[in-house]
């Protein structure tokens, strides 16, 4: 029920809103409970309390999934804003005001998919730190680090190799991606879309094709993830991608489809040995982002 106009409106608990946002983002009460360090039953009680206060249902539940209701979608925007304001206010008093510029390098794939989320959240908690981003191939980023042109860089490495001094953030399978309902994988020679020389995914894919004795031709080559996706979705070619990069319009092609296993790759981070406080703050934020991904599967 709506509160009578002559009574003060109730205050929403930020901890409850944090739980609400976690459920909305993960689509699971159990996963959200782990993220906010509560039991699933405690999380359920929090949401019941929230729905009682608002007099509306915020989630539609069935045996397999949890989705936002129309009211829940409206609340999500407000909840994120309230939590953002809370972080900003608290950080002004608790977190030292670190000021500086951090030069961050990233391969194109993670620059497109992950960095927007990382930088948005980092700017909310550290508004006085500017992050300058360079997008390039891992081999070039490694040289920039050696030349001290970058403070931090992300690198993709083959499962067989790792960059000196690199901290592995994620190990993930590389799979063959094809268009849903496509037939590119049935053609001879196999049309393949690849990145330029120096890409860990390219090296693993070509090695796998060589071991399997599969004839192939490079039908499409691009240094950018968007170009690879275009080649896949138009069914011009198949391409090696990290498994988490597969979209709803793509399928994973397996040995039963005539495609050999590629293996895994590492995403690693290299931080300058003489890192300043701003650089350490960015590195810690990146670590936290990938810890969350390993737990929830979402950035």
TrEMBL record:
Source species, domain of life: Bacteria
Domain HTH lysR-type intervals: 12-69
Any Pfam family hit: LysR_substrate
Keywords assigned by UniProt, alphabetized: DNA-binding, Transcription, Transcription regulation
Molecular function terms, GO-annotated: DNA binding; DNA-binding transcription factor activity
InterPro entries: LTTR, LysR_HTH_N, LysR_subst-bd, WH-like_DNA-bd_sf, WH_DNA-bd_sf
UniProt-listed SUPFAM superfamilies: Periplasmic binding protein-like II (SSF53850), Winged helix' DNA-binding domain (SSF46785)
Gene3D superfamilies hit by this protein: Periplasmic binding protein-like II, Winged helix-like DNA-binding domain superfamily/Winged helix DNA-binding domain
PANTHER family: HTH-TYPE TRANSCRIPTIONAL REGULATOR LRHA-RELATED, TRANSCRIPTIONAL REGULATOR
Family under the similarity heading: Belongs to the LysR transcriptional regulatory family.
Name by which UniProt lists this protein: LysR family transcriptional regulator
């Amino acid at each position: 029920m709506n509160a009578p106009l002559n009574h003060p409106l109730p205050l929403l608990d930020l901890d409850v809103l944090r739980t609400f946002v976690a459920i909305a983002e993960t689509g699971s009460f159990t996963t959200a409970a782990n993220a906010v360090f509560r039991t699933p039953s405690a999380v359920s009680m929090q949401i019941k309390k929230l729905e009682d206060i608002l007099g509306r249902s915020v989630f539609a539940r069935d045996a397999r999934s949890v989705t936002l209701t129309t009211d829940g979608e409206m609340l999500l925007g407000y909840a994120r804003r309230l939590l953002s304001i809370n972080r900003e206010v608290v950080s002004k008093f608790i977190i030292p005001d670190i000021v500086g510029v951090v030069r961050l390098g990233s391969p194109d794939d993670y620059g497109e998919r992950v960095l927007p989320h990382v930088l948005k959240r980092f700017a909310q908690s550290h508004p006085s730190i500017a992050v300058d981003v360079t997008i390039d191939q891992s081999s070039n980023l490694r040289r920039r680090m050696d030349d001290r042109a970058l403070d931090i860089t992300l690198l993709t490495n083959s499962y067989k190799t790792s960059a000196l001094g690199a901290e592995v953030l994620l190990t993930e399978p590389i799979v063959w991606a094809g268009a849903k309902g496509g037939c590119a994988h049935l053609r001879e020679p196999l049309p393949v879309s690849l990145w330029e020389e120096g890409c860990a995914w390219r090296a693993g894919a070509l090695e796998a094709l060589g071991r399997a004795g599969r004839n192939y031709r490079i039908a499409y080559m691009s240094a950018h993830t968007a170009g690879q996706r275009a080649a896949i979705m138009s069914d011009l070619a198949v391409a090696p991608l990290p498994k988490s990069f597969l979209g709803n319009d793509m399928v994973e092609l397996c040995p039963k489809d005539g495609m050999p296993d590629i293996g895994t790759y590492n995403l690693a981070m290299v931080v300058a040995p003489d890192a300043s406080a701003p650089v350490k703050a960015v590195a810690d934020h990146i670590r936290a982002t990938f810890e969350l991904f390993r737990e929830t599967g979402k950035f």
